[in-house]
Amino acid sequence: MHVRYVFLWGGLAACVASSNDQDADAMFVTADDASREIDRATRSKLSQAGFAEDEIRAVGESVVMSRRLSVQSFVKEANESNAAGPAFARSVRRESHGKAHACLRARFDVTTRTGSGVFQERASYPAWVRISNGGAYQRDDKAAHISRGWGIKLLGVSGTPSGTQDFLFITSPRFFIHDIRHYPNFLRSTGNGRIGFIFNALFNMSLEEKAVILHRLSLKVSNLLESPEYSAVPYSYGNEVVKYALSPCGSTPPITPENMPPPDQASDDYLTEAMDATLRNSTEGVCYDFFVQRPSADDSVENPTRAWTGEFEAVARITIPLGQHAGAGGPADHTAEANVRTCESMAFDPFNSTEASRPIGKTNLTRKVVYKKLAAFRRTELPDLFSRWRNRDDTVPAEYRNELNKLGDPESAQPIPEETREPTIDNVFRSLGIVR
Ligand code: HEM
3-state DSSP call for residue 223? Predict the structure, then answer.
């Protein structure tokens, strides 16, 4: 038995080594590469927040790895889809949460009487809600996803760097990393060659992290407009520290979300279809309550692999008005060109936030570095690298050049630089009755 076990893992390791030689090179990050990503001011902020040297290096490495994975995913999608598709859809997708089911216009109404910042009594904001699958671009909704979620962007907010307040949610209250030093290897294992994923999960992650990965791989979702959603990591709420959660109006988020498998013979787009059916069939629009959750005595701020157990309190309500489903026609239909463009170009960032709702903890501080750089990479830097690569500019770094050289039909893959300004409150918000 023991010998068989050794053979099995030996074989697996050999397989990882041989099948991924070239990709393994692309995934090697030098200390210099990693440290170039962290400028002096960021380094000082991270060390003040308690990051050790190897944690700071892991943050830099995560940025480098994420960029390389973005390019891999871009090339893979272009090669698999054969046709160029409509020109407006030719963007570089997010390295994480690449597949959007839709971006929907919504209204966010504060219901608490005791909040501050955007949770001030009676405040109301127009908002975008982006509903997505986690991971790089995976077209098939049935594929094993570690995450799915919502990005919410409140517009017209004062006191934030972007004029927006962004909230990010996933379908589980547990995030799968509590030690940022494990993140680069996790990323490395999600690139080309899925066997690396198993290898990494077995040898590089802690027991708690492995448990969350198993929990999240087995947490099925049948409809992202019916499921509860969680911030998984904490935020300040005035003078308190809370986590956020969302739940359909009339319900409270469960501490352990229920497994909701897709229907038999579900299609590759079953989550988009279920979302559209809910939008089409609701009579008054889709309604979600926004909750804050205070920690119980044993709940940890720094370990997001564990769900908090404290009470939830509803503090705001989100309404997604009717008329936005695919096939509705007109400018509110989420498949309309302008909406798809806005959806792909928007960048959600937890640090687009008022001071009263600022992100807390090391996971969030890591995100402060990663999100901005990755959004810039997909929106403008990769389209620019692509043009330079097409012009045979040899200053394009080898790790990108080698990947772009794998494109079957570079002409039809040409990515278009994306809008980097925040979206405006347009007439469609007015026609849907979200603003007057
Ligand atoms: C080490 C921690 C994390 C890293 C490095 C990370 C990385 C990223 C990156 C690179 C993106 C794409 C950004 C863009 O291109 O605009 C992203 C998007 C996203 N992340 Fe994270 N993430 C982390 C933790 C989390 C956590 C704790 C949550 C829990 C809510 C989360 C939820 C999301 C969601 C929902 C999106 C998609 C937002 C959208 O619709 O654009 N992430 N993440």
Answer: coil
